[in-house]
Each structure stands twice: as C-alpha cells, then as structure tokens.
Amino acid sequence: MISDFFDIFQYPFMQRALLAGLVLGGVLAYFGIFVVLRKMSFFSDGIAHASLAGVAVGLLFGFAPLFTAVVAGVFFASLIYFLEKKTSLSADAVIGIIFTAGMALGVVLMSLRSGYQPELISFLFGNILAVKSSDLVFIAFLAAVIVGFLFREQKKLILLSLDYELAYVSGVKASLYQYLTYVLLSIAVVLGIKILGIVLISAILIIPVSTAKLLSVSFKSLVLRSLIISEAVVLLGLALSYYLNLPTAALIVLVGAAAFLTAVFIKSVSARRAS
C-alpha cells in the first residue's frame, strides 16, 4: 500500500507538483504564523484577488503570468501600505478598495483576450499538476529569499506582530519591516496561487497555523507543528486528488479543514480530562 502511494510520484508532472507543494506549503505555513498574529488574513486574500490583474497582463501580452502576478502583487502591496500611511482610512477599507479594483481590472483585461482561457481557470482555482520546470525554479528562488528573511528577522517580526509601538521604541525600524512584510507576503501569496488558486489561497496560510496553535505551548512548537501539518496536508491532498480524480486545491483545503476539526476535538477532550 505504501509503495503504491509513492508510485504516483514516478511521473515528472507529479514530481514537480510535489516539490512545488512542499516548498510553498512550508513557506506559507511559516508566514502564516505572522499573518495569524497580526490578523492579516484579509490582506492576503485581497492581494490574491488583486493579482488577477497581473495574471491578465501576462496572458494578454505573452509574458509568464506567474511573474507578472508577482509584480502586480508587489505593486498592490506597496499601494496598500502607502494609502494606509497617507490617508485616515482603515486598513480594511484600503484593502477592500484595492481588492475590488485589482480584480475588476483583471476582468476587463481578460475580456480583451478572446477564446477559452484555461490559464485563467488554473489561477482562479489552482492547478498544481500544471507546474512547469521554469515555474518551479522561480518558486524555489523566491521561497528561499522569503524564508531567509523570516528566519533572520524572526524576533523583530514577532515583536512587530505583538505590539507595533513597543517594536518602534525598542529600536526596530517598524515602518520598514511592516512594508517588507507586506511585500514578501504578497509574493508568497501569489506564488501559492499556483497550487491553490486565487479563491482558496488564504486557507493554506491560516489552517495549518490555526491547527498547530491549538496543540502548541510555545512559539518553537507552533512553528514546527505548523510546518509538519502544512506539508502533510499538501502531500495527502495531492495523493487523494490523483487517486480520486478530484480537484487538487479543493482536496488540500478539505484535508486541512479535517485536520483542524480533529485538533479542535483533541483539544476539547484534553480540556475535559484536565477538569
């Protein structure tokens, strides 16, 4: 049975899917910790939807859509940061405006391209099985940059997540690190669109971390369990989609949701026994 499970990864497209899934699963789970701490799930969701404009530009003008989506993500993240600083609007209002405007621009641009557009469908709902070798190299490079930054600046980012003012008076360049967090999170989210799509990407940022949070008593265990849960969810979701011939992104999310509910049950049982 175990050998049959690993047999599916003998195919090149499954190998690329596996590598992309594990790399992105790890990056998004790690970044998801800071997203949960800073309550930035709406930001990630907004960037994902706004990046549709970048996908549309790539498809319309013949560029790699993943690259143009990353560029668009960075642009919209910078715009959100600028508007937050220069206006009295709340962060939610700014993100909502960028979210809808970016997606509307993407829809308008896509309407200029006639015919069936399978690439658009794959970016909306994810298609990890269509990851190309060039996509994998691009994803791996940017993932390494993001993880390197998070690992090196982890203490400052934690402090910034918990208390912005305290981070500032402690000598942390709060504005700079906030901007870098926005930019790198936007890149991570757009890369993740390749496996889960615009519609579902926020799930892999939130579910593994929320699940691990129920079972962790320290930040170190939170990081470790978030990574393990995320990688297991991606791996199991990928395998189930192959055997059941069902959408990969949706199954990854459903496996993650099942893991979360299991953690809730375990936590509940443990609390009752302790009382």
Can you describe what's shown?
The protein is mostly helical. The chain has one domain (13-269): ABC transporter involved in vitamin B12 uptake, BtuC. Helix content is 85%, strand content 0%. The protein contains 13 helices and no strands. The protein has helices spanning 2-7, 12-38, 41-50, 52-61, 65-86, 91-111, 118-125, 133-152, 154-162, 164-169, 174-215, 219-244, 248-274. The longest helix is centred in the C-terminal third of the chain and has 42 residues, at 174-215. The model has no long low-confidence stretch (mean pLDDT 87).
Gist?
The protein has 275 residues and is an all-alpha fold.
| Count of individual helical segments | 13
Order of helices and strands: HHHHHHHHHHHHH
Number of domains: 1
Largest sheet: none
Shape: globular
- First-last Cα distance: 41 Å
CATH superfamily: ABC transporter involved in vitamin B12 uptake, BtuC
Secondary-structure class: mainly alpha
Helix percentage range: over 70%
Chain-averaged pLDDT: 87
CATH C-level class: Mainly Alpha
* Total number of beta strands: 0
Radius of gyration: 19 Å
